[in-house]
Prior knowledge:
By secondary structure, this protein is mostly beta strands. 12% of the residues lie in helices and 50% in strands. It is built from 4 helices and 16 strands. A 14-stranded antiparallel beta barrel has the order 3-4-5-6-7-8-9-10-11-12-13-14-15-16. A two-stranded antiparallel ribbon has the order 1-2. Strand 5 (137-150) and strand 6 form a beta hairpin. The longest helix has 21 residues, at 50-70. The protein is elongated, with a radius of gyration of 26 Å.
Amino acid sequence: LGLIEAIDPAHVADPKGRLTAAKVYLDRAKALDSFVLDPGQPAVSLTQETIPRGADKVTGELERATTVAERKPLHDLTFTFGAGILYDSNVTLLGRNTYAPVTKDRKRDFRAMSSFQIDYVADLDAYAPGNAFLKRWQVFLEGRANSTWNARIHDFNEQYYGATANVRYEIVGPGAVEQLDGVYAHVRYDYDQIMLGNNGFLAYNRLRPMLQVVAFERFLDTQVFFSYERRNYQEDLFDERFDRDGDYFSGGVNAQLDFGRWVDADKLWGEWAWGGLAPHKTDPAWRRPLLFSSGIEFTSNSTDGDEFDYSSAILNAGVIVPFPVGIDFVVAGVWEWQDYWQNSLIDRNRRPREDFIQEYRFRAERKFFLTQNYKDDFEYSMPLNLTRLVMTVYGDIRFTIDDSNVRDRLGQSVFEYNRIQYGAGVRFDLN
Length: 431
């Protein structure tokens, strides 16, 4: 009866009524499934937990569907703190068969990492409930500061400071078109300042318009984007032809496929999907689907000098697999083909430079929800309510391989290198 209520067409216009009616029968089914064999002993399930798990699954899905149907305006502030340790096999990106400078003969080092970030996101009708115009607009703001400190190679310490502002406009809302969950237009601006060894290294401004299409009950999330970036390298040059300042353009498509309807943590592992310190079942983090992502990007980069003018094609792909007890395993790869426009001043035969860069990443992480008394509508609270504290523990390995055709007059492959990074860390998110 609970399942019938859950799919009854009579409840289409009243999702909250559907949830209430179905929950009455589903809770009764769970109670009837419970049986006490011996007084004083815990109750057991007559169906080996099939009915309780199924009832909880249906109830959770209905609660999520009801939240979407009632749509509260998003309003969330998140503070993020992180720390980690990393072993880097090639901090200085020293090329193969390349002699290191006398003052920089070390390339391997341990690195300590720290990060701080503030994110704020809001649907503008959170400030004027019921306003049909503001309902279509969303604002995202972010400030960040990240540092990496080397144990010995101090002049390659890195500091990153940046800010982001993104404005989203809803062109087509959920339910307006069959099989279409939303069409959104974004305009994003980023500013970043990078310091190397406590000295200024790079500052850039980036403008990125984007069109996002979500379809087929959120199975497909596609983004088409264009990016313009103005870079300012704050380095001393011995030859203006090596000036990397300039205009960097890119455009491409990214897509994510959510296979949660067929494969997710609940379907794979049942009661072992999460384990201890799990999120509420109404929390979006509870759902851990199998995700696949892929994208392609094309760049065209014109600098103030000559040596570093190039175009490239970049292909990326990744998969997130839900493991038991709340662990997510990530496998990702990036492949970039770079073609430089000018004859290289470094190459002994003055050939145009060609690079093929590969990066592979393997990561395992687990989120622990340290507070269990947070509100189910934590993303929609007005005023803000910072009660949800999540700790993420992770470990990852990254491999980078850069193959280049350039050989200098000594036969050294100065742009060609291998790099392996082993890292582990912890992150805290408060919202």
